[in-house]
Design brief:
By secondary structure, the protein is an alpha/beta fold. Helix content is 37%, strand content 17%. Helix 4 runs parallel beside helix 8 (210-228), helix 8 (210-228) runs parallel beside helix 9 and helix 11 runs parallel beside helix 13.
Length: 402
């Protein structure tokens, strides 16, 4: 099978020729520090992994009123060209003192969202590995009214995605994500809100002012819905929805049931109407939510982070509970088996994942989310062992041993 066919077989519930093996994102920090600055596609080739190309492309839904942000500059990791209007302009400024750097080479940028009524600000801090929110956007609850009234609702740029997909051909999977908030956000409604107001603040608000939380989520939902409704004919293979702020190590199943599932379930339905597949991403805890997420009818679930990395995933139990409903993606402990161990131990971890989650197909081996530091030789062992994970003659069960 080609890489694409192998991935699609797993996503469709069919049994591929062998275990599909990949990684979630290939982080620029890792490529620069350990791989001599090669790009992510060269990384896949170097190790013989099944390739993924992430593409995000937006366009103005109302070209007469909206336009691409002239101040955006270089498009960052997994960003798209931002869409703005005269009533929603974005300015940025560095908060680093001139000629100095903060602790651990951190940089801080404040973004100002200018509207006719009020300017909103948020600050992002970053280092060589990643970025995080230092100052949330929402300072007062009434700020969501400004977002709801002025924030543009871009469409998916189908022509850009389809050109890239056609160029990629059978090489591998074309992935993207449901529209996030400008500058910094997450695909899921609850997760996007947590980026803008703060996770702890959102959790407290579900008890103190649940009506306001629903109003906020509805504003973000409508923007994501209009984006999905523009996606008919777009040649994505898989879209990501969700995010870690809805994992069971962050919120309770009760909060998930009331404030996450009602919005993201409808988004999944809209994606399916547009001919798109959805992978629901909950890095962190998943086990108390397995059946609830599966009932939302995604095509795949990720990342199945093991207990050894702060999650709670038990692959064999998860496979038994929801493995006949969705494709499972992830489960590999990249912290302990891409660093500081032998190649034999890495290969054994691959076999464990295959044995516990591979039966009957519907499984894609992947690290349970990002990695920044890794021994390239252990990645080579990971990929090589996975390529030797062949389904048995019955085409139903993985081979137990080499």
């Amino acid at each position: 099978m080609t890489g694409k066919r192998r991935f699609l077989a797993a996503l469709r519930g069919e049994i591929p020729d062998r275990l599909p093996v990949t990684t979630h994102h290939v982080m620029p920090y890792f490529l620069d520090r350990y791989m001599g600055g090669i790009d992510d596609q060269a990384f896949f080739d170097r190790f013989g992994l099944d390739p993924i190309q992430w593409i995000v492309a937006h366009k103005p839904a109302d070209p007469g009123r909206e336009y691409f942000d002239p101040e955006q500059g270089e498009i960052g990791f997994l960003e798209a060209r931002r869409v703005v209007s005269d009533d929603w302009r974005i300015h940025s400024e560095s908060l680093n003192p001139a000629g100095t750097q903060l602790q651990r080479d951190e940089t801080t940028i404040r973004y100002t969202f200018v509207t006719p009524v009020k300017s909103l600000t948020m600050a992002l801090q970053s280092n060589a590995q990643t970025a995080w929110v230092r100052e949330p956007l929402i300072k007062e609850k009434s700020d969501i009214d400004i977002i709801g009234y002025y924030l543009p609702h871009p469409e998916c740029d189908a022509s850009a995605i389809n050109r890239a997909a056609q160029s990629y051909g059978e090489r591998g999977l074309i992935r993207g994500h449901v529209l996030c908030f400008d500058v910094y956000g997450q695909p899921g409604c609850w997760q996007d809100a947590c980026c803008l107001f703060g996770t702890e603040n959102m959790i407290l608000a579900t008890f103190e002012d649940p009506c306001w939380v629903h109003e906020f989520l509805q504003i973000l939902f409508e923007r994501k819905m209009s984006y999905l409704e523009s996606m008919a004919g777009v040649q994505y293979d898989l879209l990501e929805l969700g995010g870690g702020d809805a994992s069971s190590t962050v919120i309770s199943p009760k909060i998930f049931e009331e404030f996450v599932a009602p919005y993201d379930t409808v988004l999944i339905e809209a994606a399916h109407r547009a001919g798109q597949r959805i992978s629901y991403h909950t890095c962190g805890g998943m086990m108390p939510l397995l059946e609830r997420i599966a009932a939302m009818n995604p095509d795949a679930m990720e990342t199945f982070t093991p207990r050894s990395m702060g999650g709670d995933a038990e692959l064999s139990a998860a496979k038994e509970r929801i493995g006949d409903q969705v494709c499972m993606i992830g489960g590999f402990d990249q912290y302990h088996f891409f660093n500081g161990c032998s190649a034999h131990e890495t290969r054994a971890e691959v076999r464990r994942c295959f044995r516990e989650a591979g039966a009957g197909g519907r499984y894609i081996l992947s690290p349970s989310d990002h990695f920044f530091d890794a021994d390239p030789e252990l990645i080579r062992a990971y990929a090589g062992e996975a390529r030797s994970c062949i389904y048995g003659a019955s085409r139903a069960d993985p081979l137990e041993e080499y």
